[in-house]
Amino acid sequence: MTRRAPSLQRRLLVTLALLLLVTAAVAAWSLETLYRDAGLRAREDVLDAQVIALIATADIDADGRLVPQNLVEPRLAAPGSGLYAEILGSRGSWRSPSALGSGLNLIAQPSAGERQFERARLADGTRVLGLSLGIRWELAEGETRDFVIRAAESLEPWYREMVRVRTGLITGSLLLGLLLLGGLAIALRFALQPLRRLETEIMDIEAGRSESLGAGWPRELAGVTGNLNALLVGERKRLERYRATLGNLAHSLKTPLAAMRGLIERGQSGQEALAPQLDRMQAIVQHQLKRAVFGSSATTLTDLPVQEPLEQLRAALAKVYADKSVRATLAIAPGTAYPIDAGDFLELAGNLMDNAWKYGKREIAVRATPWTAAEWRRPGLVLDVEDDGRGIPPAERARVLERGARADESVAGQGIGLSVAREIAAAYSGNLEIGESRFGGARVSLRLPGR
Amino acid sequence: MRLLVLEDEPALRETLAQQFRAAGFAIDAAADGVEGEFAGLEYPIDVAVVDLGLPGRSGLDAIRAWRKAGKSFPVLILTARDSWQEKVTGLDAGADDYVTKPFRFEELLARVQALVRRSGGWSQPLLKSGAVELDTRGQEVRVDGHAIELTAFEYRLLEYLMLRAGQVISKAELTEKIYEQDFERDSNTIEVFIGRLRRKLDPDGKLQPIETLRGRGYRIARNGS
Asked: What residues have CB less than 8 Å from A376, skipping those under 6 apart?
């Protein structure tokens, strides 16, 4: 068993799902990065502001420490508030009440005018962001003293928020992706629906529930369905022809067979008695064989320029009927061509022209012209063959074109060639018309429609 | 008349050879294209019957080779498929007529005779020279409207001369065309038969239908064609 190729829908969905996954991951990652950077910068700004506020209220106390005179930020006063501050100096340091027992342990020692951010952990494991700023304090006596002012803030709330944001981002992009995939699946189903319909209709044809594809196909499929229908029609016609040929053959052989059986039963099995029956059977086989020759499907044919085969036929017939001094004119519109099998065309034109040579006396005219109609993209073909023989009386015209003319009728002449030509023409959806020629004889017009 | 049968099916080849022989032809038979091509190029063939159903299209090739070499003897093709495609291909290759299998020998013979007649320049089956009339269809000879009884050999001789009326035919040519390859050739026999023909056609010696050109051959005057 051969492995089936993945369906179009599956191919598209798998590719798009992968693409969506990558896009969503990249989008979530960049959003998160942006958010984290912005958040961190905001935290740094807060610490900066705290440090400035501390400096603004600070003054040297009696011990020579730099101490804020009042705490503007209430969080500095409350222990475990998450905001901590300290001022380190050579004569001692100050620590905000919030930092008491917290185990705040920042290590940066910036020189005056420098600032350093750092991350640290408190005794309970809380992650903090710290800012250390070095300052040089001017005393009244023109003396200067260096201090380091530090502020630190817990990052835990921010980390918690980051987790929330990340979760939100992932859920959001997943949801978006799923939504898009679902939409795509629906769009694909809609877009591929004609293909599914084609499949069903072909299955119907295979199962014999239907004869051809329906109408109303999208532009992209119309070419395929049109050709498929033409192929189906061609195949069906061919099948009908085979059936008819087989049926005719079997039926027409029965009569001579019965006659021979009768002759043998009566003891008349000599050469004289059997020969006419054998001749008849030969004629039947020949007749049916002639019909079986044609039969190419008209769907895949390229245009056949008709000038050359018609000239070949004229040359051939001029040889065969050399005893007749016939003037045969060919009038072929330049570039006249028709999509027909070369053998079929020779058979068609050959039979018509052979009749003209057979019955004509001096004048034969063959005319080939394109047959155009607004609804055809490729033109049809009209082939007129005229002779100056005795013509075919109107009452006889239908009979000589008759389908399934039996071999015994065809012996009379006329019938076989025309009925074969008529059947080939029918295979190309064309027909034969018999009329009167301008020379007073018969005119046979072959009309093959365009497509 | 020397006829080449190019047919691969032995039974049909033999039957045709026999039937044509019975109709007064000298027969060369070939079973394949190579042999047939050689016979057509090398033997003094007057007419050929070629089966197109030979293996490898060699029937067509043989016809093309003959025409290319300038051989103009008429060629009749036998086709089994009876399609115009095959007929046109054969006629285009240089054949002059076709007969579709299966056929009645009478039809084939009539077509072959017509080809021979046309190649001699006669457009009618009734050949006339002065008071002598020869009907190729019924193989009848009349002088001044009276039927003349001829033997098969005498008829063949007269027919050959009549078909080429106006031309001088050497004794060698007559020997070649009327006898088959393997027959003993003796130009005296021709003289004897010409003598008999003259006595039958012109017992009084008034008409002199067959002219003798000393050292060159015989000639029948051409008129009434």
From this structure: A449, A450, A451
Give residue B180's pLDDT.
66
3-state helix vs strand vs coil in chain A, percent to 5:
50, 20, 30
CATH architecture under which domain B126-220 falls? Orthogonal Bundle (1.10)
B121 interface with A at CB cutoff 8 Å = no
Q: Nearest CA of chain B to the CA of A184: how many Å?
A: 58
What average pLDDT does this structure show over A253-257?
81
User: Among B47, B63, B84, which would you mutate to test the A interface (most chain A Cβ atoms within 10 Å of its Cβ)?
Assistant: B84
Residue B118: which of A289, A312, A322 has the nearest Cβ? A322
Helix (H) or strand (E) holding B126: strand B126-129
Tell me which of 2.60.120.700, 3.30.565.10, 1.25.40.890, 3.30.420.40 is the CATH number of domain A300-448: 3.30.565.10
Q: State which residue of chain B sits closest to A283, comparing Cα positions.
A: B102
Q: How far apart are the CA of B116 and the nearest CA of chain A, in angstroms?
A: 12
Q: What ipTM did this prediction achieve?
A: 0.75
More confident residue, B179 or A221: A221
Phi, psi dihedral angles at B110 (to 5 degrees) = -60, -40
For residue A171, give the amino acid letter.
Answer: T
SS3 A206: helix
Distance from CA of B190 to the nearest CA of A (A): 32
Q: What is the pLDDT of residues B99-109, one digit of tens each?
A: 987 788 888 99
